[in-house]
Amino acid sequence: IFCDICIKEILKGNRPSTHFIRDEWLKIMTNFEKEMGKGFSQRQLKNRWDDLKKEWKAWKKLKGEDTGLGWNPIKRTVDASDEWWESRLQVVPEAKKFRTSGIDLEFEGKLDQMFMGIVVTGDKAWAPSSGTLP
């Protein structure tokens, strides 16, 4: 429900930059209270937003641009060899929890709507010492 409410505000153009401002948080708080029947503070909802953003970022960094990976529908996560997991977790240690339970594809889509384009994952990073552009 939280994601749906945030996405509605984003689609209305109520996220002027990378985050909501005070007025938008008030709208989210009001709508969330209507849906849940319980009020939450701006700080509580902002903490949830930040936690979801960290989780989404780790998930995207974990998957990277690797191709040929399988999908385990039971675990809802990447189906890959132990070697692949060990290698990826060296790069993205915060994604360890996704080895046993990932993010549902529908939920990932919602997180994409919330954070795509406003969060730097580093997968497109380039520096002159990197050689050719990605």
From TrEMBL:
Residues 1-86 form the Myb/SANT-like domain. Pfam families: Myb_DNA-bind_3 (PF12776). Coiled coil: none annotated. Transmembrane segments: none annotated. InterPro entries: Myb/SANT-like_dom (IPR024752). It comes from the Eukaryota. This is Myb/SANT-like domain-containing protein.
